[in-house]
Amino acid sequence: xxxxxxxxxxxxxxxxxxxxxxxxxxxxxxxxxxxxxxxxxxxxxxxxxxxxxxxxxxxxxxxxxxxxxxxxxxxxxxxxxxxxxxxxxxxxxxxxxxxxxxxxxxxxxxxxxxxxxxxxxxxxxxxxxxxxxxxxxxxxxxxxxxxxxxxxxxxxxxxxxxx
Length: 163
What we know:
Blueprint: H1 7-22, H2 24-29, H3 38-41, E1 62-72, E2 79-91, E3 96-99, E4 102-105, H4 106-120, E5 130-137, E6 143-155, H5 158-161
Antiparallel strand pairs: 1-2, 2-6, 3-4, 5-6
């Protein structure tokens, strides 16, 4: 990987994509549990590394999309603050999700799994990842979901090793 400080964002995106593709629960929620290689199907079809909602709707779809922001911690320049945004959305016709005789909102199940994945493991940073926002999200009339914000601290190695 290059030495520029922004290359870390590429690594973080890859780690998040890997976590989504390797989570049996998220793979199931995205409808890929019967696929041989969900890690080849999910990225850029059901999970985008940026905010995304299709323009033309030809079928009911579900998405777990994300983006990342990084900024220097103003109190301690050794660290940077990472914010991971998740845009968990589905077409309104597939909001209802049934599992083991119970009915849920699909996006609530996805949010619970994301919370488990990112708050229970130290995936991205040196500190514990915290869920700091879980808000309703309706990017288009036909799509409903949740907008999540996670924060974590990471070393700001780019100043020492970067350009």
